[in-house]
Write a structure and sequence with these properties.
297 residues, mainly beta, 4-stranded antiparallel beta sheet, 25 strands, globular
C-alpha cells in the first residue's frame, strides 16, 4: 500500500515553548491548548482568528472541558478547576503529586467522563511517572506506574480499547478497558516508531491513529493493525507535539508544536516552531469528552 504524503499549514503564530494538548470545544467552536513550559492556556477561534490566553501558576500539563462549560487543569502537581479565562480557580483537594520529582503531562477525558492524565520525571531520566484517573467524585486511582514520559491517549469508538504512549518506549500500546471502574489490562504493543519519538495523538472516525512525532517534524497516521497510511509533514514547525480534530465538520486536524530543545541554529530554520498548524484531513474525528465533576463534587 502506498503511504500518502501531505502537509500542514501554520494557522496561528504563538511561538509556544512547549505547545501541547489541543482540545476542540464543539459548543464554542474554539480550540484550547497549553504551553506547558510557557505556563499558558491558549484559546483560538478559527472562524474569526480570535486568539486569547491566560497564565497559569506553574507548568500546566493538560486542559480539558467540563460539562458546565468551565475548564479542568492538570497544573504541575495538582488538579485545578477554572473558568474559561482562568478565573475562579479552585484546587481539587485530597491529591497532589510529588512536584519536586514529577510534573503532569498529557491528559484527556475518557468516554465515561473520567480524566486520565500522566506524570513524567522532571529530569526526563527515570521512570517515576504514573498514569492517573480522576473521577467526578474527585477520587484518584493509579492506572499505570513506572512511566517515563506519559503522553498520548485515545479510545476506540466501541470503548473497549485505550491506546497509550510512554514516549521513550517508542511505541503505541493498547490496553483493554474495564468500562465500570476504568482499570486497564492486557497491555500490548500496536505501533513501533522507528524514526522519531511518539508524543501526543488522536484517533479518527475510521479508527486510525494520528501520532505526533516529536523529533520527526510530522504526524503519522496508522491503521489499527499498525500499518502506516499517511505522513503529514509539519514544515518549519520545530518539534511536533500533538494533534486533535476540530472545526465545523470535525475534519480539521489541528497540530501543536514546540520550540523547546531547539538550538538557535535550528530555530533559524524553523520559523514556525511553537505555532499552531492545521490540515484538512480526508476523514473526520470524534468530538471530545467532558468531565462531569465540579468544584463542589
Amino acid at each position: 500500500m502506498t503511504v500518502v504524503e501531505s502537509q500542514a499549514t501554520p494557522v496561528l503564530t504563538v511561538g509556544a515553548t512547549l505547545g501541547e494538548g489541543p482540545v476542540w470545544d464543539e459548543r464554542e467552536q474554539e480550540l484550547l491548548f497549553v504551553d506547558i513550559v510557557g505556563e499558558r492556556v491558549h484559546r483560538f477561534r478559527p472562524a474569526t482568528g480570535e486568539h486569547s490566553w491566560f497564565g497559569t501558576d506553574g507548568p500546566t500539563g493538560a486542559v480539558v472541558l467540563t460539562e458546565n462549560g468551565g475548564l479542568l487543569l492538570a497544573l504541575h502537581d495538582r488538579f485545578v478547576y477554572s473558568g474559561r479565562s482562568g478565573e475562579n480557580q479552585v484546587v481539587v483537594e485530597g491529591f497532589q503529586a510529588d512536584g519536586a520529582v514529577v510534573r503532569f503531562n498529557d491528559g484527556k477525558v475518557d468516554p465515561w467522563g473520567r480524566f486520565l492524565v500522566g506524570t513524567m520525571d522532571r529530569e526526563k531520566a527515570r521512570p517515576n511517572g504514573t498514569l492517573y484517573m480522576l473521577s467526578a467524585d474527585h477520587s484518584v486511582v493509579s492506572l499505570v506506574e513506572k512511566v517515563s514520559i506519559s503522553n498520548g491517549l485515545a479510545w476506540t469508538a466501541d470503548r473497549t480499547t485505550l491506546y497509550y504512549i510512554d514516549t521513550p518506549t517508542r511505541r503505541v500500546d493498547a490496553f483493554d478497558v474495564d468500562p465500570d471502574i476504568g482499570t486497564l489490562s492486557a497491555r500490548r504493543p500496536v505501533v513501533e516508531i522507528r524514526d522519531g519519538s511518539p508524543d501526543g495523538m488522536t484517533i479518527d472516525d475510521e479508527g486510525c491513529l494520528w501520532v505526533a512525532i516529536w523529533d520527526g517534524g510530522r504526524v503519522d497516521r496508522y491503521a489499527p493493525s499498525g500499518q502506516i497510511l499517511e505522513v503529514l509533514r509539519v514544515p518549519e514547525g520545530g518539534h511536533v507535539s500533538s494533534a486533535t480534530f476540530g472545526g465545523p465538520g470535525m475534519s480539521t486536524l489541528f497540530v501543536t508544536t514546540a520550540r523547546a530543545g531547539l538550538s538557535e541554529d535550528e530555530l533559524a530554520h524553523a520559523p514556525h516552531a511553537g505555532d499552531l498548524f492545521a490540515y484538512e484531513a480526508p476523514v473526520t474525528g470524534p468530538t471530545g469528552n467532558r468531565f462531569p465533576g465540579s468544584p463542589t463534587s
